[in-house]
Design a protein that fits this description.
The complex is a heterotrimer of chains A (about 250), B (about 240) and C (about 625). Chain B is an all-alpha fold and about 240 residues long. Chain B has a single domain, classed as 3 helical TM bundles of succinate and fumarate reductases (Up-down Bundle). Chain B contains 9 helices and no strands. Chain B is elongated and about 70 Å long. Chain C has about 625 residues and is α+β, with helices and mostly antiparallel strands. Chain C has 3 domains: about 300 residues, FAD/NAD(P)-binding domain (3-Layer(bba) Sandwich); about 140 residues, Flavocytochrome C3, Chain A, domain 1; about 130 residues, Methane Monooxygenase Hydroxylase, Chain G, domain 1. In chain C, helix 2 runs parallel beside helix 5. The longest helix of chain C is centred in the last third of the chain and has 25 residues. Chains in contact: A-B, A-C, B-C. Chains B and C meet through loops of B and strand 5 of C.
């Protein structure tokens, strides 16, 4: 199939950037979206045009590196899928495809379709951990954890930190990401000691990074490639109020 | 790139004022909003007494007036909550619209409802309505001639005031439109409230939007029934009234 | 130079304890005076960085990804082994040790493997304490499963995302140390060379992948945790960014490269669908518990698989290995698939693939039971291929997955360059000629959490602070070399992109040094690789410049190193005139087509020393002594 691509090109963080139109020729339906871009890039290189820079690594939907907004949706229209696992069979010959980077003030564009998501790292650094030094852990079975609690923690922990929630949210809010980590650790006995401190720290850092606020649009849940539910945001809100109530 | 050097990392014990925290603001919006929902339900229950008749309605009005200081405390409280709700609503609006930075050339949200997207506008419309509504029925600025009506028992004749008020078509129409805004606002507000406070029962997830809409519809029909009934002549002035 | 493994004396069970006592310590107050550079922040790197920072050392950590949380350890699905014996089914440290040595076809160092089995239990404790949500039983205790043909249930797992959860645990520990100021983290920064002065690793030269700036970093020790070299095959289950550059640069500076020809081919990957294919996706090995592997008995049978009657199907693994059947070890299962494809009985549009069929399991257990067990894997398969595995058998084929070979290290994980340590997949020590399932995560974390924090202290205490910092002229020299090399890629201005060279190299390697090797093929590869390398330096096309983010330029450097590195692999495969584990030399097989190991002549680790580009490296041998396990021929019949 042949496609028309409208791709965001931006030389570096200081460049204004613009959309460019490219033709994607002889695309096979079994290609992944990123393999389609590989083909276009090879073609561009032969024409002397610098290839489109885009983030990608594992290409199997788990590392969270790939980050393209395809026709107005992060990771494209398929649900529960990263863009590296989006295959071209979902497109038709002659389609026009808009490809843009994640858009958020807290995720500045580095180049073309690549953004800087280090804000997520800093949120993690503000409390997304259990303070346990290597070697000081007791036997793994000494604290029983109910299957329900472990499953809830795992549901939340499935987050791959790609940032699609931010890209999808009309407010560019990062609450789904932050709530997933807070909920994971709040569900487990190991997370209790620092529960309040963690919630306050991560939320304060989230705000300082300039993400928007949640107004319950639920776009994040729909865009999340791991289908993390917004109930974790509700849980995070409770965790925050709990921290306030305890005065910690 | 050195992630550590870029920005301060909060270590968890940082004292950030509650109201400047995103979730703090959400909670403030939710709590103040919840008080309005209670108010709206109470107010509607009071208003519906108009269908019982002049005697009952005026007695209710007199009861409210008789509360004295309590009524003023309630008024001050609700006014303060209102001011807070509006202040943070506007603050959130500006913060949120600034958080995107560069906008998408093509953006295709799938979940956002029209009512959710227009909360700021339905809210501001409601603010305008409330100002008018108070001017009309409480401060009597709009039709001052109805301010001092008295019924046979010498009470303030609120019943006649309301009926006469809604007999002006423009007042009724404005009122009905405003109740539309209220319904819009509520249909996103109620599920949002549950989500923010974290009170959604897992079994009700995905149903809360329907619940919100149903609640908004009931409130809308309730409030709108009064001007409609008056316009249709079902609720009338008492014989011998003005 | 002789290779000193520095394995402590004494009974195997006491070696590590004795060694820990004999190692020198750094006074707690002095730890902050020592610094280390850690390159790579996957399981091994992140756990090492966090643990060393907790002890008080100053750490600088580097990764090419935009954040440490994305390292490819994240992709491991199945689980992590540990000799906890929670299931009361006869597991023990000794059994895990024995299984690992035997699984590695007796080409690993006993003492290292024993230590790995010993510390495996502490890894699980540590990860649980970090909040890793391992699967649990209703009673609240940890769940286990048997994995990769093991006879005991010793594998801990977190759904199909064990690697992700363990990495996020290590990453969170790392985050804590970054916040504490003990680790300086440099993401999107690629190590391009190692700096050695007076026979001691002093630091590294890196390129900031966003600004293009080349800079030097010095420390008292350098630790590489940069993963494997599976991408030498171009198509592999590795992430696109995985590369050999850091390890290869260290090799060029004097570190020996051990057993490079030991590369593991994973039997259950989704087959290649066309020339545009950029990577291969692994389907968890657990699928083989219920799926049956078959091909048509006839050659070039183009019928739809559901139309091929039972009697015309060849369930070749069940036929050849009645006792293990579809659960035969990875190398055997992979080779058998290649065999039937070579016979012309392969399936799918390309004819390179075999069926993994769940029809019988669905009939026996019901669709729902199968969905419970493999639902997410089936979904992933359908997403990629567009075929529904509940209705049509899956198509699978082996793909390059893990590399057992790596930089040679002694018992302390120190390479042949003093002060250069190597952890995780980047070193060679624990898996011999073949790695068992669920052991990669175990080794990465063992090295990072429980080995290097001890041995690095001993090194610091013995060697003291490095008296050379980044202002030394050697750093300037290396920076200049790196800059020149970078500019060279940009100035060739030829016609072929680095990716096209990489693909061609991959084909050569897969064909001649993949699942089966023979002398003739390997010698052919030794002709093809230098020719391709020559063309690379004449006909490379890299657009743009070196002063900003340039992904083609990054790739050019990595491909250039793969083009040199590939030769050591070939030399190693050629020299190892036996078949063992994942290394199968066609000349050395039994009459039944099984691998024929030669313990008399090849019971050693090959450690290769760089002698110049395009020149045959020098071979050093570390002979392997087996005092605790009896050498035996693996049999899965």
């Amino acid at each position: 199939m042949n496609l028309t691509l409208y791709v965001w090109r931006q030389k570096d963080a200081n460049d204004k950037g613009r959309m460019e139109k490219y033709a994607a020729k002889d695309i096979n339906e079994h290609m992944s979206f990123l393999e389609m871009l590989d083909v276009v890039n090879e073609d561009l290189a032969q024409q002397g045009i610098e290839p489109i820079a885009f983030d990608h690594d594992c290409r199997e939907g788990i590392c969270g590196t790939c980050s393209l907004v395809v026709n107005g949706r992060p990771h494209g229209h398929e649900t529960g899928t990263t863009v590296c696992q989006l295959h071209m069979r979902h497109f038709k010959d002659g389609d026009s495809i808009y490809i843009e980077p994640w858009r958020a003030k807290a995720f500045p564009v580095v180049r073309d379709l690549i953004v800087d998501r280090s804000a997520f790292d800093r949120i993690m650094q503000a409390g997304g951990f259990v303070s346990v030094n290597t070697g000081s852990a007791q036997d793994a079975n000494s604290i029983p954890i109910s299957k329900e609690a472990a499953d809830t923690a795992m549901d939340a922990a499935a987050c791959i930190g790609c940032g699609a929630c931010v890209a999808a949210c009309p407010n560019a809010s990062a609450m789904l990401f932050v709530s997933a980590k807070i909920s994971q650790l709040a569900s487990l006995p190991q997370g209790q000691a620092e529960r309040e401190r963690r919630a306050r720290g991560m939320i304060a850092q989230m705000d300082a990074e300039g993400f928007g606020n949640c107004t319950n649009f639920y776009e994040c849940e729909a865009a999340c490639p791991k289908e993390i539910p917004v109930k974790f945001i509700a849980k995070m809100n409770r965790e925050y109020m709990r921290a306030l109530a305890k005065g910690k | 790139m050195n992630a550590t050097a870029a920005k301060k990392v909060y270590s968890g014990d940082a004292s950030v004022p509650l109201a400047n925290i995103s979730i703090g603001m959400k909670v403030v919006m939710a709590v103040t909003g919840a008080s309005f929902i209670l108010f709206i339900i109470g107010h509607l229950m009071g208003n519906m007494q108009i269908f019982i008749g002049q005697e009952q309605f005026n007695a209710y009005a007199a009861f409210l007036q008789g509360l004295g200081e309590l009524l003023w405390i309630e008024r001050v409280l609700i006014f303060t909550f209102f001011a807070i709700h509006i202040f943070y609503g506007i603050k959130l609006y500006f913060e949120n619209s600034g958080a995107r930075g560069v906008s998408y050339k093509k953006f295709n949200p799938s979940q956002t409802t029209y009512t959710a997207r227009t909360m700021i506008w339905s809210g501001l419309a409601l603010l305008a309505f409330v100002v008018f509504h108070i001017a009309h029925f409480t401060a009597h600025v709009v039709y001052p001639e109805y301010a001092h009506l008295e019924d046979a028992l010498g009470r303030h004749d609120a019943y006649t005031m309301v009926v006469v008020g809604f007999q002006h078509a423009w007042v009724s129409i404005l009122y009905i439109i405003s109740m539309g805004f209220l319904a819009f606002h509520l249909s996103h507000a109620l599920p949002s409230l549950f989500q923010t406070i974290g009170l959604i029962h897992p079994n009700l997830r995905n149903k809360e939007r329907v619940i919100g809409r149903l609640f908004a519809l009931i409130i809308f029909l309730g409030y709108v029934s009064i001007p409609v009934a008056i316009m249709a002549g079902i609720v009338r002035l008492p014989k011998g009234g003005m | 130079m002789t290779l000193e493994s520095k394995v402590p004396s004494g009974p195997i069970a006491d070696k590590w304890d004795n060694h820990r006592f004999q190692m020198k310590l750094v006074n707690p107050a002095n730890k902050r005076k020592y610094s280390a550079i850690i390159v790579g922040t996957g399981l091994a790197g992140a756990s090492a960085a966090a643990s060393m920072a907790e002890l008080g050392y100053n750490v600088k950590a580097f990764c090419y990804q935009d954040t440490p949380r994305r390292a490819h350890s994240i992709a491991a699905q199945g689980g992590i082994n540990a000799a906890k014996n929670y299931q009361n089914d006869g597991d023990s440290i000794y059994r895990l040790f024995y299984d690992t040595v035997k699984g590695g076809d007796f080409r690993s160092r006993e003492a290292n493997v024993y230590r790995l089995a010993q510390v495996s239990t502490a890894i699980i404790d540590q990860c649980v304490a970090q909040g890793v949500p391992f699967a649990r039983e209703y009673g609240g205790t940890l769940a286990n499963r048997s994995f990769g043909g093991a006879q005991v249930s010793r594998t801990f797992y977190a759904r199909g995302q064990t690697g992700q959860q363990l990495l996020l645990g290590a990453y969170s520990a790392l985050c804590r140390q970054i916040a504490a100021g003990k680790v300086a983290m440099y993401p999107r920064t690629e190590m391009l060379d190692l700096v050695v002065v007076d026979n001691r690793a002093r630091g590294i030269v890196v390129r900031d992948m966003v600004t293009g700036e080349i800079s030097s970093h010095s420390a008292d020790a350098v630790i590489l945790a940069t993963g494997g070299y599976g991408n030498v095959f171009y198509l592999s289950t590795n992430a696109k960014g995985c590369n050999v550059t850091a390890a290869y640069r260290a090799y060029k500076k004097g570190a020996f490269f051990a057993n490079p020809c030991f590369t593991q081919i994973h039997p259950t990957c989704i087959p290649q669908s066309g020339d545009y294919q950029s990577k291969l996706t692994l389907m968890s090995e657990s699928l083989r518990n219920d799926g049956r592997i078959w091909v048509p008995k006839k050659k070039d049978d183009n019928r739809h698989p559901n139309d091929i009657p039972e009697e015309e199907r060849d369930y070749y693994l069940e036929r050849k290995y009645p006792s293990f059947g579809n659960l035969a070890p990875r190398d055997i299962s992979s080779r058998s698939a290649k065999e039937v494809v070579d016979e012309g009985r392969g399936i799918g549009p390309t004819g390179v693939g075999v069926y993994l069929d769940f029809r019988d399991a669905i009939n026996r257990l019901g669709k729902d039971a199968i969905r419970d067990r493999y639902g997410n894997l089936f979904q992933m398969y359908e997403r990629i291929t567009g075929e529904d595995p509940y209705e049509v058998p899956m198509r699978i084929y082996p793909a390059s997955h893990y590399t057992m070979g790596g930089l040679w290290v002694d018992y302390n994980l120190e390479s042949t360059i003093p002060g250069l340590f190597v952890l995780g997949e980047a070193n060679f020590s624990d898996h011999g000629a073949n790695r068992l399932g669920a052991s990669a995560l175990m080794q990465g974390l063992a090295d990072g959490y429980f080995v290097i924090p001890y041995t690095i202290g001993d090194y610091f205490a013995r060697a003291g602070n490095s008296d050379v910092d980044a202002s030394h002229k050697e750093f300037a020299n290396v920076e200049k070399e790196v800059e020149e090399r970078t500019r060279k890629y940009l100035s060739i201005n030829g016609k072929r992109t680095p990716d096209s060279f990489h693909r061609e190299l991959g084909k050569i390697m897969w064909e001649h040094c993949g699942m089966n090797r023979n002398e003739q093929g390997l010698k052919k590869a030794l002709e093809k690789i230098p020719a391709l390398r020559e063309e690379f330096w004449e006909n490379l096309l890299v657009l743009g410049n070196d002063k900003n983010l340039n992904q083609t330029l990054e790739l050019a450097g990595r491909v250039a190193d793969f083009l040199e590195f590939a030769e050591i692999m070939i030399y190693d495969a050629l020299t190892r005139e036996e078949s063992c584990g994942a290394h199968f030399r066609e000349e050395y097989q039994t009459e039944e087509g099984e691998a024929k190991r030669d313990d008399e002549n090849f019971s050693f680790v090959s450690a290769w020393e760089f002698t110049g580009v395009g020149k045959k490296p020098n071979l050093h041998k570390e002979s392997l002594e087996f005092e605790n396990v009896q050498l035996a021929t693996r049999s899965y019949k």
